[in-house]
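explain this.
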Amino acid sequence: MARTPTGTSDRGGERQGRGGERGERGGRRDREGGRGGERERDDEFVDKLVHINRVAKVVKGGRRFAFAALVVVGDAKGKVGYGSGKAREVPEAIRKATDAAKRNMIKVPLREGRTLHHDLYGRFGAGKVILRSAPAGTGIIAGGPMRAVFETMGIQDIVSKSVGSNNPHNMVKATFAALQSMTSPRSVAAKRGKKVADIIGRREEGGKEVAKEA
């Protein structure tokens, strides 16, 4: 007596049903933004692509190309970070760099929310940069990589100069090295045990003396 394929079809249908259920769960997980879903972009951050480079790896069958991206991310309120990412496709490399930048953000105190408190000098490798505070209306006077850092950070008036390597990675890292050495009147007053008004008053008096001498 020949066996009927009834049981087989039932099992196959059950297996397909389970597969469909798993697919539905996976689709729900994607829609909810879980594993494998789309990554939500933070509207509070502004990201700028500084540089992208195509790199090649020589293997037995030929050369494999990949892309390395350098991205700067900031909230336009004094918080900024940079990151680099490498992938086989450009969008994936930019996404990796953006995530790395968000993980390595620093907070820089700004004077009146528009410029630096004092002049800075930064160095990383062969990259050397000079950053100077500027009066209102000056604007951002800076090169490409440094301009991206200042725009995402929220600086409105600054004068900067690169006196070393023009490599984007070294310039960005030197700029961050300079910004990390920034001190605000509040931090100086806390270290000296004085009031912020005393520190700001001395700074203004020093500026007036320099103007009279000039």
The chain has a mean pLDDT of 79. The longest helix spans residues 6-31. The two ends are 113 Å apart (CA to CA). Residues 50 and 144 are 8 Å apart (CA to CA).
